[in-house]
Every structure is written in C-alpha cells, then in structure tokens.
Design goal:
The protein is mainly α. The chain has helices at 5-34, 43-63, 72-92, 97-110, 113-129, 138-153, 155-164. The chain has one domain (5-164).
Length: 171
C-alpha cells in the first residue's frame, strides 16, 4: 500500500498521541486522587493499580503496538484488562473516572474496527454494572452515552490511523 508523505506523517502522530495519552491521564488522575481531602483508604491499592495499569499499557500498546487495531485476540485481552483496571481504580476514587472514560476512545485504537463498537458498548455497560461505579441517573447515562457518541464520531481519525497501517492479512 503506497502512502504519501502527509498520510505517513499524520498517522505516526495519531498513533503516538493515542499511545501516550493514557500515561498523561494516568498521572493527572493519580495527582487528583492524592489531592483529595485525605486520600481515600485505598492509597496502597490505587498506587498498585496505577503502576499496574502503566505497565499493562506499556506491554500491550507500546511493546506490542504493531498489533493495535489489527489483531482481535491479543488486543481484546489488552482492552478488557484496561477496562477492568480503570473500573477498579474508579471504584477506589472517582478522581480516576477520566481514565475510565478514555476507554471509549481506546476501543477504536486497540480493537479492529468492527469490534471497536462492541468494546465501546462494553465500556458503557461496565459503568453501570460495576458496583458503585456509577448510579444509573439521567446525568450519568447522558455522560456515558455522550462519551460513546464522541468516540464513535471521532472514528474518522482512528480509521485513518488503522487504514494506513500495513496488515499481515492483506499484503
């Protein structure tokens, strides 16, 4: 597949952005957690969860980043682990919720295109099924549906990133 200079340059920037963003949000949400009145009793577990999530993302998205958006099984393992980890951190403190919302967008980065919508739906369902993560109020439902709609609407940039990558299955 021939790529012009603009597509190759833009694709690299998009890939870099979406693999680096979780680290920025992870740091910001952990600092917000530490800034709470007294940090909740789960200080140890939030620190362990933050380190685990950083290593999890590094292993799957950085070290094995060539599989992003291409291979269903390994990227499904990555995405489910990401979703469970961010939900667990959000259960410790709501200050980690922006990290959970990031899963909407990362569904389109990690999973093959058709499966990304299922990953996005799973992210919305987990928000209401996980105990005490979110109460099913109108405001919370609107926030989750809005997050999902924004991720689906932004499918264009993600599609550019995924289409420009060479695929093992389509030489």
């Amino acid at each position: 597949m021939m790529r012009n200079r603009w597509t190759a340059h833009t694709t690299g920037r998009i890939d870099w952005f979406w693999t680096a963003l979780p680290y920025a949000i992870l740091v910001v949400t952990f600092v917000l957690y530490l800034a709470e009145k007294p940090p909740a009793t789960g200080l140890f577990w939030s620190a362990v969860g933050t380190v685990f999530l950083g290593l999890w993302h590094w292993w799957w998205a950085i070290r094995h980043g060539r599989q992003l958006g291409l291979e269903l099984l390994p990227m499904s393992v990555y995405f489910v682990g990401l979703l469970v980890s961010t939900a667990g951190l959000t259960l410790i403190s709501f200050s980690f919720f922006p990290l959970y919302l990031m899963c909407f967008a990362l569904a389109f980065v990690a999973l093959p295109r058709a499966w990304a919508y299922l990953g996005m739906a799973l992210t919305g369902v987990v928000a209401f099924v996980a105990p005490w993560l979110l109460d099913p109020t109108v405001d919370n439902v609107a926030a989750i549906v809005g997050g999902g709609a924004l991720a689906a609407a932004a499918d264009g940039p993600f599609a550019l990133s995924n289409k420009a990558r060479p695929s093992c299955r389509n030489p």
